[in-house]
Design a protein that fits this description.
This protein is of the alpha+beta class.
Length: 111
């Protein structure tokens, strides 16, 4: 069995991370949210929040990210949405979209 968790960030002032919202909207539009088992919040103001704990556990310093767990195997971590979609959800992505996301680090929110 495979379990997929999305970790998104909420800033200390309560506002959502811009990139997290964009990724969630893309997933909603593509009907992909239903394929997630869990959405976890990394609260910037609470280092003990489940999302912040998962980020620390998996050495991830940006949001959003995805944790893909297969029974009996190490978890796979995806910090690039288009790579996650292509490799895990088996959806079509364009190389241009992937490169834009990788190169557009200004929208990434660090945990």
């Amino acid at each position: 069995m495979t379990t997929i968790t999305m970790v998104k960030k909420i800033f200390a002032d309560g506002s959502p991370c811009k990139k997290c919202g964009e990724v969630e909207e893309k997933m909603r539009d593509a009907g992909q949210l239903e394929q997630l088992d869990k959405i976890v919040i990394a609260y910037e103001a609470d280092p003990e929040s489940e999302g912040m704990q998962l980020a620390a556990q998996h050495n991830v310093d940006r949001a959003p990210f995805f944790i893909v767990e297969h029974d009996g195997q190490d978890a796979e971590i995806y910090t690039v949405y288009f790579k996650f979609v292509k490799e895990v959800l088996n959806a079509k992505t364009s190389e241009d979209d992937e490169l834009k996301e990788i190169m557009n680090d200004v929208d990434l929110d660090f945990l």
